[in-house]
Specification:
D-Maltodextrin-Binding Protein, domain 2; 2 domains; alpha/beta
Length: 325
C-alpha cells in the first residue's frame, strides 16, 4: 500500500528528532519534515497554508477558532511548554519590586498577542491583580529594529499600545536609556546575558515561584501545538491519529534518553537531579501530550485571549483538537 506524502514543518527538538531521523515513522504517511524555526513555520502556515501540517502558535490557533474562521485542525501535541515567570525583566531604578509595582509602568514586548505574552498577562491578572490596561505597552524589536508588518497586529480596546516600527528603535535601547521600565522578553535579552547592572528579573527565584504556581493552578503553559490543514484532515482523517501516535512515540524516545546514565555521568552529572525534581513537581509524565494532562493550560489560554480582547469568545479545551486518543 502506498503511503500518503505529507509535509510537516517543525523545529529540531529532542522530541521531534526521532521523526526527523527516521527512528519513528507515522503509519500510512511518507513524512517530509521541513526544519524551520517556529516563527518562520508559524508565518508560512498561517498566511500561506504552505504545509499539510505544522507546528503552530497556540494563541494564534485558539484565536482563529474563536473567530470561526480556522482553516486548521490541531492535535494535542504540545511541542513547546514553558513557564514565563522568568521572562519578566525590570530596570533598576524603576521602582518595581513586586508585580503590583508594574501598574502605571512602561512595558516593552516584541508582540502583544503571542502565546508567551498572553500567558504572562493572564498570570499577572489572575495571580497578582495586574491587568494589561494597568501598563503602557511598547511593541518592537528586542535587540534589532523591527519593521512594520504587512498587517498590523490586533490589540485590545482601551489598552495603551505604541508600535515601534521605525526601523531604528530597539526595546533594549529604550530600556537602557531609561525609557522603558520592564521587558516581557520571550528570549533572554542581550543586556541581561552580558550582566548589565540595569536589568534584573522581577522574580529572582523564579523556579520556586513557578513550582508554587503549577501546584496551585495545574497550569504548565503550552506555547505550540501541531495543526493539520482542514482540507487534509477532511480528505484523510487517519492523518491526525497517525501523526499523534508518531509524535508520542518520538517524545517517549526523547524522554527515555534523559535517563541514559552512562551519558549523563560523562557530560552533565547533575542533570538527573533536575529530572527527578521536575518529576516531583509535574509528575512522572512531565512532558505529557494529550488533552487531559494539559487541560488547565488549554482552558487558561481560551479564557485569557477573551479577557484580553484578542478573541471574541472563550474557546473551551474540548473544541480545540481532533479525536486522536
Amino acid at each position: 500500500m502506498t503511503s500518503l506524502p505529507l509535509s510537516l514543518a517543525c523545529w529540531d527538538y529532542d522530541r521531534t528528532r526521532p521523526l526527523i531521523d527516521g527512528r519513528v515513522t507515522a503509519e500510512g504517511i511518507d513524512l517530509d519534515v521541513q526544519l524551520m524555526r517556529p516563527q518562520q513555520a508559524f508565518q508560512r502556515m498561517l498566511t500561506e497554508k504552505e504545509f499539510a501540517a505544522s507546528e503552530i502558535s497556540l494563541a494564534s490557533y485558539v484565536t482563529l477558532k474563536a473567530r470561526g474562521e480556522c482553516p486548521f485542525v490541531a492535535i494535542p501535541v504540545t511541542l513547546s511548554k514553558m513557564f514565563r515567570h522568568s521572562c519578566i525583566y525590570v530596570r533598576e531604578g524603576s521602582g518595581i519590586r513586586t508585580p503590583a509595582d508594574l501598574k502605571g509602568k512602561r512595558v516593552g514586548a516584541t508582540q502583544f498577542a503571542s502565546t508567551g505574552v498572553v500567558f504572562i498577562k493572564g498570570m499577572l491578572q489572575h495571580e497578582y491583580g495586574v491587568h494589561q490596561s494597568d501598563m503602557r505597552w511598547f511593541i518592537g524589536g528586542l535587540d534589532a529594529p523591527a519593521h512594520k508588518p504587512p498587517a498590523m497586529p490586533q490589540t485590545a480596546p482601551g489598552v495603551a499600545v505604541e508600535f515601534l516600527y521605525d526601523g531604528r528603535t530597539t526595546l533594549e535601547g529604550l530600556f537602557e536609556a531609561g525609557e522603558l521600565d520592564a521587558l516581557f522578553a520571550l528570549y533572554i535579552p542581550k543586556i541581561f546575558e552580558r550582566g548589565s547592572p540595569q536589568i534584573r528579573r522581577l522574580f529572582p527565584d523564579y523556579k520556586s515561584v513557578e513550582q508554587s504556581y503549577v501546584r496551585r493552578t495545574g497550569i504548565f503553559p503550552v506555547m505550540h501545538v501541531v495543526a493539520i490543514r482542514e482540507d487534509v484532515h477532511r480528505e484523510y482523517p487517519f492523518v491526525a491519529r497517525s501523526l499523534y501516535k508518531a509524535f508520542c512515540d518520538a517524545r517517549n524516545l526523547a524522554v527515555d534518553g534523559l535517563y541514559d546514565t552512562d551519558a549523563l555521568r560523562v557530560s552533565l552529572p547533575w542533570l538527573i537531579d533536575h529530572i527527578e525534581e521536575t518529576r516531583g513537581v509535574l509528575g512522572p509524565d512531565f512532558f505529557a501530550y494529550g488533552l487531559a494532562p494539559n487541560r488547565p493550560a488549554f482552558a487558561a489560554i481560551g479564557q485569557y485571549l477573551h479577557e484580553q480582547g484578542l478573541a471574541p469568545r472563550v474557546v473551551t479545551p474540548e473544541e480545540l483538537f481532533a479525536d486522536v486518543e
